[in-house]
Amino acid sequence: MGSRLEEFQEFRSRMNQRILDVDNRAIKRFFGVDTLTYEAGALDPRTKEMLGLVASMVLRCDDCISYHVIECKKEGVTDAELFDIFSVALVVGGSIVIPHLRRAVALLDELNAQEAK
Amino acid sequence: MGSRLEEFQEFRSRMNQRILDVDNRAIKRFFGVDTLTYEAGALDPRTKEMLGLVASMVLRCDDCISYHVIECKKEGVTDAELFDIFSVALVVGGSIVIPHLRRAVALLDELNAQEAK
Amino acid sequence: MGSRLEEFQEFRSRMNQRILDVDNRAIKRFFGVDTLTYEAGALDPRTKEMLGLVASMVLRCDDCISYHVIECKKEGVTDAELFDIFSVALVVGGSIVIPHLRRAVALLDELNAQEAK
Amino acid sequence: MGSRLEEFQEFRSRMNQRILDVDNRAIKRFFGVDTLTYEAGALDPRTKEMLGLVASMVLRCDDCISYHVIECKKEGVTDAELFDIFSVALVVGGSIVIPHLRRAVALLDELNAQEAK
Amino acid sequence: MGSRLEEFQEFRSRMNQRILDVDNRAIKRFFGVDTLTYEAGALDPRTKEMLGLVASMVLRCDDCISYHVIECKKEGVTDAELFDIFSVALVVGGSIVIPHLRRAVALLDELNAQEAK
Amino acid sequence: MGSRLEEFQEFRSRMNQRILDVDNRAIKRFFGVDTLTYEAGALDPRTKEMLGLVASMVLRCDDCISYHVIECKKEGVTDAELFDIFSVALVVGGSIVIPHLRRAVALLDELNAQEAK
């Protein structure tokens, strides 16, 4: 599954660049706002990434969940904290969130295995 | 609008009690899990309420948003922090969140006006 | 709240008629399919109304929930059965369903009070 | 209902201003992108408002639907064209859209009655 | 596709166990409530599985749909009854449900082919 | 990825036929209404396909997006117009739409590469 993660990240980077190369101001600016949103403000990036993760889980978007799990790990969010975030997503969003939870935990295990090397 | 807030809280408490009086184990236990989820764990209740708020906003549920704004205020979340949470919800969830943002800010203004008395 | 229920039903009937008076074939036929769907087939109308109710709850549409609670009552679905339907909606859809559950139970109480007269 | 429409517009303008007065760059810029999106580009504003309307209907946001119905009328979208937009929303989004359709048509009737004066 | 079904079931079991092994009370209890919900109450498990299926379809979660189609078959729900459930999901949820319907029917055909062996 | 597009179209056609062969009147008629909706009315099929595309994007259904991108191309919608549609979907639906936007643009590139041959 290591290759699946790399594929996701390669496709994500390549297509984001492809989209930003298009001459469409609204889309370009939206991407700018998206980046700005997670920068330090009244809340620090760590908390903002946790917010982005729970929002992605209740809206049930696997790619968004993967992205924010990776960012949360970079910000030093622990596994126990991640499971607390997962619990809020599960209770607010219901059992329909469970398949996404399974995939999020599989990704987390993969990230932890990479780190352990 | 003070009365609207009181009405919301009175209806909420009364109907929750009405529902818990029914002999349905799954519903009772679900309410129990809901309460448990926001208690201190790896994350503190303050962070968990912020997570509950952003999840409610992207799922666009006014009553849930009202509830979590009130709880966030109780946990000492500042207005500037609340607007950071709102910004994440807006960018993740899109302009469809704006009507709920307007109502959340109106509620916040009302809560602040009550405090100022 | 009796008047609120009557208002809902009057507005619903009047606007449905208004919409069907418009010369738009796709909309007219969609309304026809909608009616057909709840008629007896391999499943009886009683079961189909229960399915319509749980679908409306997880999609969080108050008017649709009200309509299907009323239809379920007409089909003889008991209160205990309704709460079982509510429990499935709650667990599948999460705590975001709770505000709609409160309003559904308030409507149910109102319908039962009318019957008891 | 004329007053309901005015109330909606007054609350919308006042709260948007209130939100833009807050010192939160991500929210301010999001509002800027939102405005930019409906300006003339490869598609004209008339087509973009129609797109905004159908998107609001399938996401089932009454305030957004009201806003885009008003803007579509300003752009000269006819009633027959509006009902074609409604039909796409209905078929893509399902019967769960119907309560919003009823309210959209009630608003349209109100706008047409005002014009007829 | 037989292997796809086995893969789904193997991944589902393995990750559910992985998640339950984590020391997070809210998640553990949520899984408990989820199991409890489909047990016999005022409604029998057969009806509850049908409710779970229609809820999963309108929320458009392929894994949840697969799970409930399998459980419905175990409870003796016939193909004609399944298609009646699908019709309610389709009409309530709209054409956006169709891709999930196609995959649900493909799974059903696969399950029937296995039985026929 | 050429084969992925062909696979999608083959699976789509085959399963649609499989579903229409079933004796379920509501499903058959729903498919009929779905076809009718995109035929010329007050709006031409080109505009209707654009509406179908934006609705599919904000509801985040990849198969529906693929289908409508293909139909838009057949109706002569240009790439610049498609990106304007994408911008409306992005702003209304939020960053949660971005993964679907990436896949939509990848499909568009594939379709353009086929045409260029």
Description:
The structure is a homohexamer of 117-residue chains. In chain A, 79% of the residues lie in helices and 0% in strands. Chain A is mainly alpha-helical. Chains B and C meet through α1, α2 and α4 of B and α5 and α6 of C.
Layout of strands and helices, then pairs:
6 copies of one chain form a homohexamer.
Chain A: H1 2-20, H2 25-37, H3 45-58, H4 62-74, H5 79-93, H6 98-116
Helix pairs in contact in A: 3-4, 3-5, 4-6
Gyration radius over CA of chain A = 15 Å
User: Based on DSSP secondary structure assignment, what is the total number of beta strands of chain A?
Assistant: 0
Assembly type of the chains comes to: homohexamer
Secondary structure: helix percent of chain A: over 70%
Question: Which word captures the global form of chain A?
Answer: globular
Mean pLDDT of chain A: 96
The unreliable regions of chain A are none
Strand content of chain A: under 5%
Order of helices and strands of chain A: HHHHHH
Largest sheet of chain A: none
Work out the largest interface and the residue count of each chain. Answer: A-B, 31 and 31 residues
Please give the alpha-carbon distance between the first and last residues of chain A. 15 Å
| Content-based structural category of chain A | mainly alpha
Q: What is the helix tally of chain A?
A: 6
